[in-house]
## 1
Amino acid sequence: MSNATATTSHQRRILCVGMCVLDVIHVVEQYPAEDTDKRCLAGYWQRGGNASNNCTVLRQLGAPQVEFLGMLSASPAFGFLYEDCRKRNIIIENCPNTDMDPPFSSVILNKATGTRTIIHSNPGFPPLQYEQLTPLDLNNYGWVHFEGRNNESVLKLIQNIRNYNIELRNPKDRIRISVDLEKMKDEILELGEVADFVFLGKDLAIHLGWREPAAAVMGLYDRIKPQKQLGDSKPAIICPWGAEGAACVDALGNYVFIPSKPVSEIVDSLGAGDTFCAAVIYALQVLQKGLPEAVLFGHDVAGYKLRYRGYDDIKHFR
Ligand code: FRU
């Protein structure tokens, strides 16, 4: 039998598994015409990547213990990615590293429209390999969130967590598992079947033929087989649908659409989806809210973030 530590589940670490990349950002007055030479209004770089952004937001919201797990680059030129995690008290003690330069994104933030255009470059950065990881002490964790990618290793990590949960004396100590299904690949749906919470991206939903938010969450809910290890339950599914709001279905199949409030001025929409996801997890896990309240909280934090550059102002969100 596993013995969870004295802390209750919601005080333990929230772990986000995925990528850490460099985002190089240009803020422009309007989107440049092709083959022109322009100056931007502002330029800067920051640590990015979905799981890495989730960690940043969780820390800004006040989650006490946040860990990132992903391959890190040991290349000296990118030491800033490590430093930034350290500065924000994001635990990286279980991350493997490589000498290769990290993936990076060139991002254009268009002041006129509020859009963010991302051109991502990943010239073969090694993905996380389950076999290379030091086994995690699962007693430390209350929630583990996965970026939907790299199925083979992620499924093995999830299986370990599932086995740990089965062995627990007190079901309240269960580690909850969420996955972010955003990449346009049909095979990542497999990860949804083994999670407690699924974030389904709008683009993936449309790619799968669901043109409405209700059709997306109910379509995925119907497609997922009940999970034997969880007493034949299904995951809750949350599908953010742009500025309109998000469709949700809970584990019992109850559907609700939670609208979001309009945002008057968008300063920075990069990572707004990652912010929503992190804020929903924070509300469910740390604030112990129910699903509709957590999604509303997610909208409010993401809406707040849109008004500021980067993620640092989220700490002032009330
Ligand atoms: C935003 C983001 C960026 C990163 C890109 C990778 O959601 O995580 O930080 O460059 O997506 O696709």
## 2
Amino acid sequence: MTQDELKQAVARAARDYVADRLPVGAILGVGTGSTANFFIDEIAAIKGRLGGTVASSEVTARRLAGHGIRVLDLNDVDAMGIYVDGADEIDPGMSMIKGGGGALTREKIVAAVADTFVCICDASKRVPVMGRFPLPVEVIPMSSAHVARELAKLGGSPRLRDGFVTDNGNLILDVHGLSITDPVGLEDRINQIVGVVTNGLFARRGADVLLLAAPEGVLTFQR
Ligand code: 5RP
């Protein structure tokens, strides 16, 4: 199977998961990225069941709206049953690296509101120890050099993402060369650096459910 066929398969499985478990009229959080895009295209078929969606990025909001799916402001939502999103890496403890698409801060905010985080990805994203994928860190523009120096002290090699500005008007430092054996500790440590908006480690709020597309089918893991 091609990578896109795997993404399509897991997107379909996530649509079925939502259709089976999210009460009619409830709110669905929707992530960002190529796998999330397949999921958005799939949920067009069940949009009548949804009370509305909350998007984790401007690009996701536009794709949802393009399908005629209602997009709500998070501040107008009291509760969200399920959040579905991809990941760049996920470890056996269901901690993730996210932010390859630069939407990490809004993703983390939307995920914080959701009862259940459903991660959708293909088997290549499941790793014993995270860090091969560079860890994205969103920073306030005037702080980027300071934050880069502090990240280097933690053993990483930060590189400014060239020509990229987040939906929040900030910059991304991609930190190479980390071996993340303590995801919660590192998430907390990086978030304490002045100038960091947030980092792409989703360890304090990891995935509750992982739908993993493998050639033999879509496998389900629970936290
Ligand atoms: C975007 C993300 C994505 O979920 C992550 O990058 C995975 O993307 P893809 O499904 O394209 O591999 O965190 O900020």
